[in-house]
Design a protein that fits this description.
Layout: E1 8-15, E2 18-25, E3 37-44, H1 59-67, E4 71-75, H2 86-101, H3 104-113, E5 118-129, H4 131-137, E6 150-153, H5 169-172, H6 187-190, H7 222-232, H8 236-240, E7 264-269, H9 277-289, E8 294-299, H10 315-333
Parallel strand pairs: 3-4, 3-5, 5-6, 6-7, 7-8
Antiparallel strand pairs: 1-2, 2-4
Length: 336
């Protein structure tokens, strides 16, 4: 990883005596305003809110952001089903933003880097893939401060849609049999209240974050087995939100669109069967109807989680990079 050495890893909150950390990447050539402050982008990994870890955020995307002169926060968050999506992932995402806004990030960077690079609390952007895309969107409501702009890669949304109740045969075919959510093999998962490292993600990376050809899920791991079963049986929403189908307005970005929503771009593959592209198109239309600045970038022939297997310099790489160009355009306007 290029940049000013390896990232620093510091906690942004503590829950039940467990530190929840973020990795902080600092660019070699930061953008700085007249006060010497540098913009920040917060990244959230995917994994159905139940798998993955910050190490699985795409390293090429992180380097691209640093090459643009941005500080990168690659954030861990607590995983469902031990906590529900609002009390765990969404709460952590919002607390990470508040920590960056209210001096926590600045203090951590000052200690590590003296005053060579200091973050700008007024120029914080957010992005994420899949579940992480949802978490980036969730920063647009329910928090005192909002990001400057948001970039959503095929994020989970529109939980009222019938799609979320349908089994997904492409996943079902990978399982020898179906296991219900209340099977004793999964009991330990419901007892894990502060787990934020959740094995291999749905993006195709290994548990260590390395990319390579997609491998078969490790069905001997209860967490991976649980997630695959919930996706296969159309029970993801119930797994992360036990009140479903009630109170979806507390967790669904589509149900919280408002006129002060930050500028938002969507990137979605046209061959996505796990979260169909139409869901992102639906939300983008709702935002535009509310007067929000938006952009939509469809990536031809790519499935869900394509970021995990994306090759730098490929056609897909250049297409998805238009989402980051959108963020950069929003950012540049703040300097004029």
């Amino acid at each position: 990883m290029s940049g000013a050495g390896l990232p620093i890893r510091v906690p942004y909150k503590t829950v039940e005596s467990t530190d929840i950390p973020t990795d902080i990447f600092v660019p070699d050539r930061p953008i700085q305003d007249a006060r010497g402050l540098t913009p920040v982008i917060i990244m959230f990994h995917g994994g159905g809110f139940m798998l993955g870890q910050a190490k699985m955020n795409n390293k090429d995307q992180i380097e691209d952001c640093m090459s643009r002169g941005w500080v990168v926060m690659s954030v861990e968050y607590r995983l469902c089903p031990g906590v529900d999506v609002l009390a765990g992932p969404m709460s952590d995402a919002r607390d990470a933003l508040e920590w960056a806004r209210n001096g926590g990030l600045g203090s951590a960077m000052k200690e590590a880097y003296s005053e060579r690079v200091l973050p700008d609390p007024e120029r914080i952007m957010a992005m994420g893939t899949s579940a992480g895309g949802h978490l980036a969107l969730s920063l647009a409501w329910g928090t005192a401060n909002r990001p400057l702009a948001i970039l959503d890669f095929y994020g989970a949304k529109h939980f009222e849609a019938e799609f979320w109740n349908r089994p997904i045969e492409q996943i079902r075919s990978k399982l020898p049999s179906l296991t219900p959510a209340n099977d004793p093999v999964f009991q330990s998962l419901y007892e894990e209240k502060v787990t934020y490292i959740g094995g291999a993600s749905l993006e195709g990376q290994s548990e260590g974050g390395a990319r390579g050809p997609p491998s078969a899920p490790n069905l001997s791991d209860p967490r991976q087995l649980f997630v695959m079963n919930m996706i296969a049986q159309g029970q993801v929403v119930e797994s992360i939100w036990s009140s479903a189908p009630k109170d979806l307005h507390l967790i669904d970005p589509v149900l919280n669109v408002h006129s002060d929503w930050p500028p938002t771009a969507f990137v979605h593959g046209t061959k996505d069967f796990m979260i169909p592209m139409e869901m992102s198109q639906y939300m983008e239309t709702k935002l535009r109807s509310a007067g929000v600045e938006t952009a939509f970038f469809s990536v031809p022939d790519e499935p869900h989680t394509f970021v995990g297997q994306m090759v730098k310099g490929s056609t897909t790489w250049h297409k998805q990079r238009e989402g980051f160009d959108f963020l950069e355009r929003i950012l540049r306007r703040t300097y004029s």
